[in-house]
Amino acid sequence: MTKKLLYAAQMTAFDKDGNINLDGIRALVRYNIDVNKVDGLYVCGSTGEAFMLNTDEKKQVMKTVYDEANGAIDLVAQVGSLNLKEAKELAKYATDLGYPKLSAVTPFYYNFTFEQIKNYYNEILKDVDNKLLIYSIPALTGVALTTDQFAELFENPKIIGIKYTNADFYLLERVRNAFPDKLILSGFDEMLLPALALNVDGCIGSTYNLNAPRVRAEMDAFEAGDIEKARELQHISNDMITDLIANDIYPTLKLVMKHLGVDAGVVKKPMSQPTPEMEAGAKAIYEKYFKN
Ligand SMILES: CC(=O)N[C@@H]([C@@H](O)[C@H](O)[C@H](O)CO)[C@@H](O)CC(=O)C(=O)O
Question: Taking the CB of the first residue and of the last residue of the chain, which one, N or C, has fewer CB atoms within 10 A?
């Protein structure tokens, strides 16, 4: 039995003016390696607020994370962009830096046809010697790929798996069994246990920046056949995720990180800047779920 993989979705620290804060990014990476003991980081994804960054900022984030991690853990660079030229440039940049894996969100907004989506992935990979995870997140992109469509994308041998952020468990079962050798990482933290039951290889998520030790214990309990314990741990995590969402998840993740000793700055506008109420909510989350 292979150990399930735990990846945190790397946050990007910003100052109040929306400038990236490289020291904050380094501190987050260190915490994920030293305290959370994650297997890897997913860089420049949704949690990294990457769709609000320009190309140079994305490169700075990728480089900073790569330098700080210094080979200690796996790294996945999310390079997907509606600007295909940018996606290709980032794929080359991350590959040249040494990122062992890439990922790209399905192109969104313009209702692209499947043929166009397939061309997008093949174009991104054409000139780089690297592997890629499809980032499938239908709730935000409106793109819901079918099993047959995943099969067509997998005809490109560089496409090695899926970051599956989708509540469709019927599809997950179909895809898992159709592609037993592909890497499938579950993306909804609150749905990890059912995804483990369907034999995903692990998970990538935003809340693992805070909650990785509890999630590791859940995955270990699951692997050991202690489903009762895994359920209890998922239940605590889901109470915590419910509280995070109610308090506005993206800014609150950073506020809770501050209580954990890591200054991750604030989120980038148009996301909400912290209010006193939000700060009080974050403190309560820290005290309820993380304070020893
Ligand atoms: C939309 C979003 O942020 N989804 C998160 C989840 O970790 C999510 O925050 C969590 O399950 C709470 O709903 C991840 O799937 C995204 C992610 O890993 C990333 O791209 O950064």
Answer: C
Q: Is the pTM of this model over 0.90?
A: yes
Q: Please give the Cα distance from 45 to 79 (Å, whole number).
A: 8
Reported as a single tens digit per residue, the pLDDT across 109-123 is: 999 999 999 999 999
Q: CA-to-CA distance for 12 and 133, rounded, in angstroms?
A: 21
> Which whole-number Å values give the CA distances from 177 to 172, 180, 182, 200, 242, in the listed order?
8, 6, 10, 10, 31
ipTM of the complex: 0.97
**Is 135 labeled as catalytic in the residue annotation?**
yes
Count of alpha carbons within 13 Å of 215, Cβ hemisphere only?
32
In a domain, 259, yes or no: no
Give nearest CA residue, ligand 1 atom 1.
46
Ligand 1, residue 241: give the atom nearest the CA: 12
Q: Tell me what pLDDT residue 1 has.
A: 63
189 Cβ below 6 A of ligand 1 = yes
Tell me how far the alpha carbon of residue 143 lies from the centroid of ligand 1, in angstroms.
16
Domain that holds residue 81: 5-226
Model confidence pLDDT, tens digit, residues 123-143: 999 999 999 999 999 999 999
Per-residue model confidence (pLDDT) at position 44: 98
Catalytic site residue 163? Answer: yes
User: Per the structure, how many domains does the chain have?
Assistant: 1
Which residue, among 55, 8, 62, has the nearest Cα to 208 in the 3D structure?
A: 8
